Amino acid sequence: MAKLLIAGGRHPLQGTIKISGAKNAAVAIIPAAILTSAPVRIENLPEINDIQALVEILEFLGVHAQWESPSTLSVDASTLDKWEPPYELVKKLRASYYLIGALVGRFGRAEVPVPGGCDLGPRPIDQHIKGLTALGAKVEVEHGIIKVEAKKLIGANIYLDIVSVGATINIMLAAVRAKGKTVIENAAKEPEIVDVANFLNAMGAQIRGAGTDVIKITGVSELGPVNHSVIPDRIEAGTYMIAAAATAGNVLLCDVIPKHIDPIVAKLREMGVTVDVADDQVRVIGCHLPQAVDIKTFPYPGFPTDLQSLAMVLLTQANGSSIITENVFEGRFKHVDELKRMGARIKVEGRTAIIEGCSQLSGAPVRATDLRAGAAFVVAGMLAEGETVISDIGHIYRGYEKICSKLNSLGANITEID
Ligand code: UD1
What we know:
- A four-stranded mixed beta sheet has the order 21-22-1-23. It has a four-stranded mixed beta sheet with strand order 2-14-16-15, with helices on one face. Strands 4-5-3-13 form a four-stranded mixed beta sheet, with helices on one face.
- Strand 17, helix 10 (about 310-315) and strand 18 (about 320-325) form a beta-alpha-beta unit.
- The protein has two domains: about 5-20 and about 230-415, Enolpyruvate transferase domain (UDP-n-acetylglucosamine1-carboxyvinyl-transferase, Chain), CATH 3.65.10.10; about 25-230, Enolpyruvate transferase domain (UDP-n-acetylglucosamine1-carboxyvinyl-transferase, Chain).
- The protein has helices at about 25-30, 50-60, 85-90, 100-105, 125-135, 165-175, 190-200, 235-245, 260-270, 310-315, 335-340, 370-385, 395-400, 405-410; strands at about 5, 15-20, 40-45, 65-70, 70-75, 110-115, 140, 145-150, 155-160, 180-185, 205-210, 215-220, 225-230, 250-255, 275-280, 280-285, 295, 320-325, 345-350, 350-355, 365, 385-390, 415.
- It has 14 helices and 23 strands.
- The site of uridine-diphosphate-N-acetylglucosamine has 20 residues, from helix 1, helix 5 and helix 6.
């Protein structure tokens, strides 16, 4: 299994990079494509392993999928004839749970193994099940397989007990072709949800309110062809913004939607980092000693949990102590032990981490404990003295397109080794 070797030294990152399409929108839009048997064309897909895995799953199910370019996929789901994706493929990514909503929306049945993905502590899917059940589906979990059957899906009022991105999208997928009106209350408001709704509406769905906490869906009997371009990845953008700030660099990011990165821009400015925002670009100019700040993760538009581990690395370089409170996932501090092995001084108490600043990190072998933690170790490796070797890098490639060449084009020194 390959590893990443990162030469440290805190060399300032300099230059320009382009942000790819949003992973968390793309992994929902690809399953959504099977809701129609008309031709679907999706542009600006990120070149990442999660997308490759989803395309393999679709092909297994009988869909004809063809790459027109590395980022443009055409999908013809008229030949779809299976509703039981295999465990070997489904376990590769968390987002395979979207196959449930999409298959039930198309066929009235799905048998999907409980999905894999990052280990962020307990990740129940009770809200997905609650939504599907409210729409009239019978849901059973047997031998690790989620079995869903519905003679006819009927629109319903669904109040989510917890704000969940996955449950909001999954219910939307199942409800677009249901009979009558569905209302999702306490819905998640992430930009990726809006992108999925825009994709479905362009196919003829009737979804209103995506991006607010009440989403109203009027079911339609059929969906038609669509050509859609995926929004830019705000988490990838945030990752490189933090990397630029941490190395006291000067980096221009192109192809961003500034509104989507507001919480990151605000935090970096609070730390004394210069962030200039224009149209679809953002420039980050780091400072040598950023100020310590406190960060609380929340669903959008709060500070994203997906950038928590990266922000933690930046805060090890800050002037003073900072507190991070993780409000979204119960077990999302698994990266802390690895960062401590690199010399970071961090204390975790429950959902809170106290990070002492001005730490000289030193290169060490570390294991990518999850996708975003893997990216955090890449940044930590660039700040450290000496070399860092990251193992289990499959996690990183699940979600970051060409991370090594993008960072190397800015002056980093990262190589893949066997
Ligand atoms: C999605 C993102 C992930 C991001 C997360 C939060 C994708 C593919 N992944 O994950 O990158 O970190 O949103 O922004 O888009 N929960 C329940 N019951 C449920 C569903 C969720 O208790 O049925 C809990 C979770 O355990 C978690 C919280 O709700 O504590 C939020 O989870 P959710 O928004 O569903 O995250 P994911 O969709 O898994």
